Amino acid sequence: RYWRDWSSDVCSSDLAESVDVVSTRYFFSSLAYNAETAEGQSLVRRLNADFPAPDGLVYLDCPVDISIRRLTHSRPRLDTYENRDKLLNVRENYDKVIGEYKGRKLIVDASLPRNVIAEKIFDFVTLTHPTLAELSRTHSAHELVEELVVEAERK
């Protein structure tokens, strides 16, 4: 069990072999960041049409002001899309896309402490993936989820 960006070709073969894949980015982020018009949304949806729907979706809902504060503390300079106006638009797009998604999802307030976020994600994953239910609440399992949360905060 591991995570990687979906762009890796290995993920398709992993899914075929029933390996659990956790991705920190997926077509939801493409829709949120790259589709500012109805035409853009349509194009991104077509380009991602062959991607399988996730078994479970975790959305870390972070207020824009907190995102900007975290970004400025973790990087020497921000990328061009990491500004208040763009992030407000991205958040609006995420709200729409996540709201429309009918699959299993967990929306977590990303302003909560990391350990609380990790606990919520761990509970969701073990409830939605019965094969993972045998995992005990070991430090290493929580550590893995916390690492995912930290990675998501950096992006």
By DSSP (H or I, 4+ residues per run), the number of helices equals 7
Tally of extended strands?
4
Give the overall form: globular
Distance between the termini: 22 Å
Overall mean pLDDT: 78
Radius of gyration: 16 Å
Short structural summary:
Helices cover 54% and strands 9% of the residues.
Task: Write up this protein.
The chain is mainly α and 155 residues long. It has helices at residues 10-16, 27-34, 38-47, 64-74, 84-100, 114-128, 139-154; strands at 2-3, 21-22, 57-61, 105-109. The strands form two sheets. The chain has a two-stranded parallel sheet with strand order 1-2. Strands 3-4 form a two-stranded parallel sheet. β1 (2-3), α1 and β2 form a beta-alpha-beta unit. α6 crosses α7. The longest helix is centred in the middle third of the chain and has 17 residues, at 84-100. The chain starts with a strand and ends with a helix. The model is unreliable at 1-8 (pLDDT under 50).
SSE arrangement:
Elements: E1 2-3, H1 10-16, E2 21-22, H2 27-34, H3 38-47, E3 57-61, H4 64-74, H5 84-100, E4 105-109, H6 114-128, H7 139-154
Features:
single chain, 155 residues, mainly alpha, two-stranded parallel sheet, disordered N terminus
